[in-house]
Each structure stands twice: as C-alpha cells, then as structure tokens.
Amino acid sequence: MSLKDYGLEGERLRSAIHLDTRQEYMLGDDQACLNYPMRYPTVEFELVDTIELCEIVDTIRKGKGYRPVLEEGGDTSAWYSMYLGLNGYTSTGLDTSILAVVVNSDSEDNEQPYYLDLSEEEQWAIIALLDEQCREHYGKSCADLLEEARQAMEEDT
C-alpha cells in the first residue's frame, strides 16, 4: 500500500514530510547487483515522526496485533524513528519507501522496521518537498547533496 491508500496526499502529505534538522544527514553509498555490481551515492535523512506518519505505522502495527503509539491506552513509552533517503539509483532519486522503526516499545516488535511504500507519484512529490527543505535548512539542493555523496564515494575507491 502507498501513502495515498492511507489518505496521505496533497496538503496532508506536505504536512507529514519534514526533515528532522536536529539530526545530521548522512552521506553514503550502496550497491545493486543486477548483471554486475554497481555502486551509487546515497544521502539519508531522519524525518520528524509526524502524527500523519505515526498514524500509518500504528494502523500497520494494530493489524499485526501490537498496541499503537498514538491511541489512548497505547504504547505510551514508545515512539517511531523515521528515515528516508536520496539515492543515485532510482529514476526519482528517492528511496521507494519510508523506513519506520519502533523504539522503546515493550512489544515484541521493538526495534523492528516497517516500510511505508511510496508510489512513483509520491516519490516525485516528496523529492520536491525535500528539495525545498534542503535548500532552506542546508543551503543545498537534493542534487547538490547527492553530488557530495558521489564525490565522497569516489574518494573512497
């Protein structure tokens, strides 16, 4: 399921996706092995665990029998860490899902990852939001950050 299937589109999507600028972005690289190994640059961001994103993860977790974080009587000591990355591999330049990790939960799924799939349309919308936020907070575009990651990757080889 994509974010749109959870009612997260348009202005609601805009209010849900925010870089956590208290955390540093991380430059890196990854590798895909289709016909031959291919390295590509990555930039990973931590996202703010907005209510909209948390509600989606809560819905997924409830479906698996776990207590939600946001609802009354829920897992009140827990929270979600959310991550999303740029990459030099996909056509959109964005990961195909948001990674949500359950933190400090007393449930069996503590520290388990949940993936919020992104349609290609959502990826394009989110990359535009991230580009806007990167320019505002870091003074660089997403393309600039990927180029930094590419240069760092090439220096490591």
Mean pLDDT: 92
The CA-CA distance between the termini, in Å, is 38 Å
Supply Rg: 16 Å
- Within the largest sheet, what's the order of strands? 1-2-3-4-5
Strand content: 25-35%
| Overall geometry | globular
What structural class is derived from the secondary structure elements? alpha+beta
Elements, N to C (H/E): HEEHEEEHH
Fraction of residues in helix = 25-40%
Count of beta strands = 5
> Any idea how many domains?
1
Helix count equals: 4
Task: Quickly list its features.
25% strand; 157 residues; 34% helix; 5-stranded antiparallel sheet; alpha+beta; single chain
Topology:
Layout: H1 10-16, E1 26-33, E2 37-47, H2 51-63, E3 79-87, E4 97-103, E5 113-117, H3 120-138, H4 142-156
Antiparallel strand pairs: 1-2, 2-3, 3-4, 4-5
